[in-house]
Design goal:
9-stranded antiparallel beta sheet; Beta-galactosidase, Chain A, domain 5; 289 residues; mainly beta; globular; 6-stranded antiparallel beta sheet; 45% strand; 1 helix
Length: 289
């Protein structure tokens, strides 16, 4: 376990999956991250790479060959190396290997950087193409925030607050976790979504067309909460496993396959391309209060 801290926050991260393990606000004493109770969901903040979401039949085709790859890719299950550490920042790096090349035929260096700024945690993804051909990838976050956050409050005391008025549909997921062909009306001229556990009984709430680039967890019975800032992330997932005490706010640069996806990697919705020997950087942050 590795720790970074400043005057306001202390954050712990595991080398496996470069996954956040704890976010404590030193001044209010609150833990903001989900406990990882395996009875509900054993992860806390998996890193999604080189795909986001599920693939049709858990496979894709590239250059005439079929590859098997599980939901959200392999980075969350592999050990990263610490390649830089200071008091308030740390960088974890994953390198392509014989193991990854069997599932994803690209030579890469993938880093996750965590940096503290006052009461904010910034997360940055850095993808470097070490090969001689175009690399295709998606990347995203999956942080699970503890809810209820404050003792004496309930899950339903909280709501999501969007920084722009939303008229946005929800894209339902099939039983296999694929995006259905048609969206459903969901947010209607509002900036708020009251939280109820039943919202997630049909899996994640998936957005493709949010106007907002920040979502807060707030309450009318406590001043404490958080704001996730995700400028430039076109997809957003909000999720909780059935009846668990957390909410995931997931900034995505990529999305699950649709039920009618072709299966070809370069045709996948939300996929990004990176030229040989080039790098890509994108980040999101969370402000805790």
């Amino acid at each position: 376990m590795f720790t970074i801290s400043n005057s306001q926050l202390e954050v712990q991260v595991a080398a496996k999956g470069a996954e956040l393990q704890s976010i404590v606000h030193k001044q209010n004493g609150l833990e903001y991250l989900w406990s990882g109770d395996a009875a509900y969901w054993g992860k806390k903040s998996p890193v999604l790479f080189p795909v986001v979401g599920g693939l049709k039949n858990n496979q894709y085709q590239y250059n005439g060959k079929t590859y098997e790859l599980g939901r959200h890719g392999f980075a969350r299950d592999l050990a990263f190396e610490v390649t830089h550490q200071a008091a308030d920042t740390i960088v974890f790096t994953l390198y392509s290997s014989a193991e990854t090349l069997g599932r994803y035929p690209f030579h890469f260096q993938f880093s996750v950087q965590y940096t503290l700024y006052h009461n904010q945690l910034a997360v940055e993804y850095i993808v470097e193409n070490l090969g001689h051909e175009l690399q295709w990838f998606s990347v995203g976050g999956h942080p699970a925030f503890k809810l209820p956050l404050v003792e004496g409050t309930a899950f339903s005391d909280y709501y999501l607050s969007f920084n722009h008025t939303e008229n946005s549909s929800r894209w339902p997921l099939s039983a296999e976790g694929l995006i259905e062909k048609a969206s459903l009306p969901f947010l209607n001229n509002t900036r708020q979504l009251p939280l109820q556990k039943s919202l997630f009984y049909e899996d994640a709430i998936v957005f493709k067309d949010l106007q907002s680039d920040a979502i807060s967890i707030q309450s009318n019975v406590t001043k404490h909460g958080l704001t996730v800032h995700f400028p430039g992330f076109p997809y957003m997932g909000v999720w909780c496993t059935k009846d668990a005490d957390f909410v995931c706010i997931e900034p995505w640069l990529g999305i699950a396959d649709s039920v009618d996806a072709s299966g070809k990697l370069e045709e996948k919705e939300g996929i990004h391309s990176l030229d040989a020997h080039q790098s890509f950087r994108k980040g999101w942050s969370v402000e805790f209060f």
